[in-house]
Design a protein that fits this description.
single chain, alpha/beta, four-stranded antiparallel sheet
């Protein structure tokens, strides 16, 4: 298997990157990456800082389009459809493929408004209170905040804020959740809450998580992609990548010899 490719079949894929190269101006951040993201699994993307992990993650829901210097070659497919194709609405792409960022970023609004805001401005039908409760329950936060929904979200702990951001994404009814280092700013207890939550969420959602924490990747993911210098070195089932890597460079990284 050559670097930049993956042996996983496209059958059962919800996302695919096909020969994707991403640049910031003339600097290549991701080079010729091809991989398949399976449905209702957790896929971890690991690698040293600056290796292109977050850049590829943002490409899946067209977030790189907010960066003027960014450009992309190749294709990103969502359920077999080119997510960058002519006539494809990027807002709809981001609705179906939600994003949770590294640092919790609740709006300076009430807990209720944080969850209800996205569906409201997008004209979602139905009763707002039920949608808020459903999203907060899915994010394992309802029991902690149900009596103070009108309080400021900024008064929540860091771990609660991150789960609120997950609820905010879930309220938009996505099929895929992208997570960029969602636990890096959290304490071990809050990290444990998030990891337990991910196991529940993958019963319904497909999750792609960028993490520097190899132990976390080994604990929670079904598949792992290892990037270095913008190149996909290896991708496969997590157990295989961590215990029987096909490439020496992967073994060197997961055993801590560099990175």
């Amino acid at each position: 298997m050559k670097p930049g490719s993956v042996g996983t079949s496209a059958a059962g894929a919800i996302l695919e990157a096909r020969d994707v190269t991403i640049r910031y101006a003339s600097k290549v951040a991701v080079r010729n990456a091809t991989l398949v993201i399976p449905e209702r699994k957790i896929t971890a993307i690991i690698g040293p800082s600056g290796c292109g992990k977050s850049t590829l993650l943002r490409a899946f829901n067209r977030m790189n389009e907010f960066i003027p210097s960014a450009s992309m070659e190749g294709k990103i497919l969502y359920r077999g459809t080119d997510a960058y194709g002519k006539g494809i609405d990027p807002v709809e792409v981001r609705r179906r493929i939600g994003m949770v960022f590294q640092k919790p970023n609740p709006f300076p609004k009430s807990i209720r408004s944080n969850v209800a805001w996205g569906p409201a401005i997008n004209g979602y039908p139905g009763e707002s209170a039920g949608r808020v409760e459903d999203a907060l329950r899915k994010a394992a936060l309802w029991d902690e905040v149900s009596e103070r929904l009108d309080d400021s979200a900024l008064g929540l702990s860091g771990g609660q804020q991150q789960r609120l951001c997950i609820a905010r994404a879930l309220a938009m009814e996505p099929e895929v959740i992208l997570m960029d280092e969602p636990c890096s700013a959290l304490d071990p207890v809050s990290t444990g809450h998030i990891e337990n939550l991910l196991f529940e969420l993958k019963k319904k959602y497909s999750i792609v998580i960028v993490t520097h924490n190899m132990q976390q990747a080994a604990r929670i993911s079904d598949y792992t992609a290892f990037f270095e210098n913008g190149v996909l070195i290896e991708y496969g089932e997590t157990d295989q990548v961590f215990t029987r890597p096909a490439r020496q460079r992967t073994e060197d990284y997961v055993t801590g010899r560099f990175g």
